[in-house]
Structures are given as C-alpha cells and as structure tokens.
Amino acid sequence: xxxxxxxxxxxxxxxxxxxxxxxxxxxxxxxxxxxxxxxxxxxxxxxxxxxxxxxxxxxxxxxxxxxxxxxxxxxxxxxxxxxxxxxxxxxxxxxxxxxxxxxxxxxxxxxxxxxxxxxxxxxxxxxxxxxxxxxxxxxxxxxxxxxxxxxxxxxxxxxxxxxxxxxxxxxxxxxxxxxxxxxxxxxxxxxxxxxxxxxxxxxxxxxxxxxxxxxxxxxxxxxxxxxxxxxxxxxxxxxxxxxxxxxxxxxxxxxxxxxxxxxxxxxxxxxxxxxxxxxxxxxxxxxxxxxxxxxxxxxxxxxxxxxxxxxxxxxxxxxxxx
Length: 322
Ligand code: SAM
Ligand code: SF4
Known about the structure:
single chain, binds S-adenosylmethionine
C-alpha cells in the first residue's frame, strides 16, 4: 500500500478528502453504454461500434451505492450513460436510491424518451433532469447527431409539468451549431429554465485531435453579448459551471472545461457498469469497488483527480457518461 493511502485511511472522520482538500460528495453512475443517438462529439462516424452494454440490476447498483454510503455520506447521485432512459429498470432504481436516503437524484438524458417517462420518473422520486439539447433548429439538431426531434422538443414541457427541476445542456461546435446559441438561450428563457453551454471536451475518439471544433467560453459570451447584456455571478463551490445573469433576470451558465477549469474543488466520482470508480474523465483507469476496501478505492479514485486542469482521455463518454 502506498504511504499516501495509509495516511488517508487513518482518518477517523467519514469524509473522503484528497491531498488538495477536495471532498467526495457526488456520484455519477453510468447505467448503460447503449444509446439511440450518435452525437458528433461523442460517437465517431468512422467507428460507430461501442462496447456492448453490460446490464446491471438495480440491486447490484444499490449494493455499490450503499457500500459507499457506509463509508461516507453522498449529497447527490446523477444517472447518466450512454442513454440512461434506455435502462429498463430506471423507475425502480430511482425509487431505491431515494429509499436509500440519497438527497438528490438527477439524470442527464438526451430527452428522447422523457416525453413518455417524465411522470413515472418523477413519481419514483427523480428530482432533476439535465436535457442535452444542442439545437432548436431541426436541421442543426440532426447534424449534431440528435434524433426524435419532436419528442425531445416536447420533453422540456413534459418534464416541467411532471415537477422535475430541468436544465438544458448544449455542447457547441464550431460552424455546426454555434448559430444555435441565441435560439437555445431564448428557448430556455421562454421556459424559465437554466441553460448551460458546454465547451467541447477531448474525450474518446476526439482525444489528441486538434481542437478546431472548439467554441470557447469567451466566444460564447461574445455571441450572447451581441444581443443581451449580463453580469457574472459568483461561482458556487464545486460548480462545473460559471453562471451569468441577463438584465431581464434569466440565468445561463458555461461549462468551460478548457477555458475555466473547475478541478480545484471537484467533489465528484464516477461509477461504471462494472463497479469501477473513476476520479476524473482525464484518467481512464477504473478502480474496482471491492466491498472490504471501499474506502481505499474511493480514496485512490480521489487521488486520480487532475490538480487544476482537465486534459481529456480516450475514455468514451458513451461508456462512462458526462
Ligand atoms: N446520453 C445522455 C445525454 O446525452 O445527455 C447522457 C450521457 S452524455 C455522455 C452526457 C453529456 O455529455 C451530454 O450533455 C453530452 O452533450 C456531453 N458530452 C458528450 N461528449 C462530449 C464531449 N466530447 N464534449 C463535451 N460534452 C460532451
Ligand atoms: Fe448518446 Fe449522450 Fe453520447 Fe449523444 S452524448 S451519443 S445522446 S451518450
């Protein structure tokens, strides 16, 4: 065992803290690597083959979550994938997570099934959804790899009516959907919800490639400032996003992995469908959650975190989840 680990596991309090004083509080769980979309930034058009998804029963996921909870309390769990709405036992899993005392259960989804699932998921206890929507216009939406355009458009309203806390995530690519920044912002304003614009992350097949598709946080702010005035809000601790308030009162955010990295107070770990935990998307080495040594695995995963800057990796976002 390395000396760092020995030192950390000697702690008598329950918190899992790394050497930079970052505390583990939130878990992202990838439920499947299956997906019904082929987003340009996530799936390569050259090689559409993704590792076959591994089905994990809710009992197994609960077992992993509870073994973590025995070590340290979790503030929130976010379900992701692949496309988490394709996971066949989703309502049951959500219900069990809430019964296990997870205060906030959220999901990141492409929204393609939310128009039929939202009510059932809210009833099971889901608190929030982040809907990934990269364009308002159908043509750009399809160019980005989105499908089921009408269903996704109506999913926003359905999710709100079901009582879910809704945000939009939009990943912006140069000359593909950068003309959608204002229409997306205005869509979010009409629904009175927050939109976050994401800078492209060098993950999976994009790892190591030139960042010619990148639209930076500054570029996004410049486009918005051509039409609207806004002020920056103070950054909340551990937030991936910097938020801005428009003069009309609406709030939008930018997740700038590249321009405004948020590693210094990151409080998240990730769990894949095989029971491996990961400290960072920049490190593709999963650490098995061994029941007897859960604390050690979590501590090691925390030590995987980048010091201050995201570097990307060849991990597929469709496997590990965003
Ligand atoms: N399928 C779900 C969805 O699309 O919302 C959940 C999984 S997806 C991997 C999670 C988030 O990661 C989405 O908001 C997606 O836009 C984002 N994402 C995927 N690949 C990305 C990349 N290379 N750069 C930036 N964001 C990416
Ligand atoms: Fe599927 Fe989400 Fe990846 Fe798009 S970003 S291909 S919806 S997993």
